Amino acid sequence: MDKENTKENRLFTFDGRPAFTEVMPLGLQHVVAAVVGIVTPGLMIAKICGLNASDTRLIIQTSLVFSGLATLLQLFPLFRRFGARLPMMMGASFAYVPILLSIGADFGIGAIFGSQLVGSVVVIVIGLFIDKIRILFPPIVTGTVILSIGLSLFPVAIKYMAGGAGNPWYGTPHNWLVALVTFAVVFYLNHFGKGLMKLSSILVGMVVGYILAFFMGIVSFDAVTTAPMFQMIQPMHFGFEFKLVPIMTLIIMFLVDAVQSVGQFTATTVSAMERKPTNQELSGAIMGSGLTNFIGSFFGSVPCATFGQNVGLVIATKAINKYILVFASSILLLAGFLPKIAGLLTTIPYGVIGGATISVFATIAMTGIRTIANEKLTPENTTVVGLSLAFGAGIVMSEGALAGFPEWVTTIFGNSEVILTTILAIVFNLILNQPLRKKKTNRETENLQKQVKKNASVPAPANSK
After folding, report:
1. Which of 105, 115, 217, 261 has an alpha carbon within 20 to 30 A of 377's alpha carbon?
2. Where are the domains of the chain?
3. Sign of the dihedral through C-alpha 283, 284, 290, 291
4. Any stretches that span the bilayer, and where are they (predicted)?
5. Exposure class string for 193-225: b at 16+ Cβ within 10 A, else e
6. Which of 148, 123, 212 has the alpha carbon at shortest distance from 174?
């Protein structure tokens, strides 16, 4: 009995040495939960920038490779500074998509990676001082920002469901049929599925939608047949363009994501490890993310960040063993060096992507609402949320509202509600809630303490003493 308990306990300790047969199913769960989210941002950016099939395949390859590398860096810190040594899955992030699509449409693919290069350096610096700037991003601010990210992605999903803006078949019934069938499968499995089927609802939905699109004659396999069997990723293929407006825009987004990452790492340690993360772990987490994105910008990788769905997996299973994520990272790295896999992913029609991701975007928005709702909805807090979203979303939805201003003003504030909403949420919160005032306790600390107390009441894994 003790031996069995010891075997089970290996999965619930970070440095345990479980058998491969124990690691494999849990690692595959992480791959299934993450892979669609990893490749889809690259597909969206490639389409908005008008990349050819070869370049689209390459950007997917690099996204897979650097998602694997970013995860490994969090597990095994470099120089004990870059990385958190915590069980966190990293991958190309949807949070950046609205900003990257805006930069790509207005300035091109080179401006995306030039801005990412500069922004990632700023992130590394932020990591050194994250404990000092977190006060600017209390839950009421981060919740508002996350909500604005979700809202900004809704039109993207709808346009994809309609077939992709600019497509000659845009808005036609056959695109909507593929999209709605995909959505229906995802919706059913999310709410009525069980086990692995529920966990992999997005992947299963995309497979069903893809098969339907194939029989409708929408899918072309030219990108697969022309792809080589093996190919290394290529440095400097997309080049750099350094332009002030995209750089400043992406720096703000990197700052927002850094604070969001702190929340994800905190949720992991509190709920799965029954402790709060140390300042060194949080600093390493942010600096590790910055280093990965710095190197990734040379190869054309979409910015990597924490994956909320994988955080949920770790919390649900309490399986924090590092070798589980090592296995998952190895699968991503292998797929990243096999262009035919990347080529197959580029054949996914717009409708399938839209039908699958609208649920993801809705979850992002609801995460923001949940974060806001967990705070006291005082008149000050409701003002912070309401006014920030009113200005941020209102200006974006009012075409030409900034027509009399210089072009850079429209680029920063008129194309995505995320940036203006973030800035205003910080400013309004500083004015109304005075977050810089030192307090003995705050709402976030209380919530963490309650969660730790709740987790402490759950029986420890077998073999614990």
Report:
1. 261
2. 11-435
3. positive
4. 26-46, 58-79, 86-105, 111-130, 137-162, 174-190, 202-224, 244-267, 323-342, 348-372, 384-406, 412-432
5. beeeeebbbbbbbbebbbebbeeeebeeeebbe
6. 212
Nearest by Cα to 59 from 74, 44, 37: 44
This prediction has a pTM of: 0.70
| pLDDT tens track for 216-228 | 888 878 767 877 8
Joined together, the tokens standing for residue 53 give 């099939």
Cβ–Cβ under 8 Å, residues 394 and 152: no
- For residue 375, pLDDT over 90 is answered with no
Interacting residues of 121 by C-beta distance below 8 A, sequence separation 6+: 290, 294
Distance (Å, rounded) from C-alpha 432 to C-alpha 422? 15
Dist. CA 350–CA 210, nearest whole Å: 10
Residues 6+ apart with CB under 8 A from 53: 222, 223, 226, 343, 346
- Under DSSP, the state recorded for 92 is E
10 Å Cβ neighbour count for 232? 11
With H, G, I as helix, E, B as strand and everything else as coil, classify residue 244: helix
Tokens of 362: 């809705």
